[in-house]
Amino acid sequence: MSVWFAILILVVGIGAYLIASESRFIYFPSRHYDATPEQYTLRAEPLEISTADRVRLRGWWIHGEGKRALLYFHGNGGNISHRLERVRLLVDALGFDLFLVDYRGYGMSDGSPGESGLYADGAAIYQAARERGFPPEQIVFFGESLGCAVAVETALSHPGRSIILEAPFLSIPAMAKAVYPFLPAFLVRTRFDNGAKVPRLTLPKLIAVPERDDVVPPSQGFRLYELAASPKELYVIRGAGHNNTHIVGGVDYMEAWRKFLTNQGGSSAPSPSGRGSG
């Protein structure tokens, strides 16, 4: 056996392994809840909703002032119980009602995660907010990290007031190239292509980039901002890493949210499919 043939076999073998194991490199769900809304003195109502493909999702409708709803699409690790500290801040500072629901395969939700499945989850969460009395002009989409892709897809298909993307990435192939530069792009099947979609989003958008993000290269967030259609705002969270944005950002972090929601986020709701005048 020649050396080149052995190398080819090795490359093919590695490629086959990566294709079979791709989801393990993207999703890091936890089934165990580490906290409850009551521990953070939050008023919460359990949610159990069904997706179009009949997967049951579970989470919480966390009550604020009842004036506007934040659809919180969380990142790829843990579950909704790990977002309650930030939720407490958002309720206190901005009065949001929050729809905090685990994707399929996370927490107490059924199923297993995948790109099309998470998009179906986003649509079901949006519908749950509508059914509980929130019209499009009172709905704000919020995605953190992987959740940015779910927020973008949901906002493309459903009208809302504005969207906030925190620690966003361009796409899974772009992330794979940044983390595994030797990996051929054609081996990556999952897309989550924010870079291709965000130019079509015309509702007001805030793109928040952690200055010292140790997971998503900040350059990807800056590029996404460049690609985004107006109206748009860029907020660099000084000194923050990927998972401590609201802690390191402090008062300035909440003020950036407040300013955006007052200015851009106060614009009229876009037309259906998220492609109106914004």
Helix/strand layout:
Elements: H1 3-20, H2 22-26, E1 28-29, E2 44-50, E3 56-62, E4 69-73, E5 77-78, H3 84-94, E6 97-101, H4 115-131, E7 139-144, H5 146-157, E8 162-166, H6 172-179, H7 194-197, E9 205-210, H8 218-227, E10 232-237, H9 245-262
Parallel strand pairs: 1-5, 4-6, 4-7, 7-8, 8-9, 9-10
Antiparallel strand pairs: 2-3, 3-6
Molecular structure report:
The chain has an 8-stranded mixed sheet with strand order 2-3-6-4-7-8-9-10, sandwiched between helices. Helix content is 37%, strand content 18%. It starts with a helix and ends in a 16-residue tail after the last helix. Helix 3 runs parallel beside helix 9 and helix 4 packs across helix 5. Strand 9, helix 8 and strand 10 form a beta-alpha-beta unit. The C terminus is likely disordered. The protein has one domain: Rossmann fold. It has 9 helices and 10 strands. The chain is globular. By secondary structure, it is of the alpha/beta class.
Sum up the structure in keywords:
278 residues, alpha/beta, Rossmann fold, eight-stranded mixed sheet, two-stranded parallel ribbon, 9 helices, 10 strands, globular, disordered C terminus
Instruction: Count structural domains.
Output: 1
Low-confidence stretches: 265-278
**N-to-C SSE series?**
HHEEEEEHEHEHEHHEHEH
The best one-word shape is globular
Count the strands?
Answer: 10
Question: What is the CATH C-level name?
Answer: Alpha Beta
Tell me the helix content. 25-40%
Overall mean pLDDT stands at 90
C-alpha Rg (nearest Å): 19 Å
**Named CATH topology:** Rossmann fold
Q: What is the terminal-to-terminal distance?
A: 62 Å
Widest sheet, order of strands? 2-3-6-4-7-8-9-10
Which architecture would the CATH scheme give at its second level?
Answer: 3-Layer(aba) Sandwich
Number of helices: 9
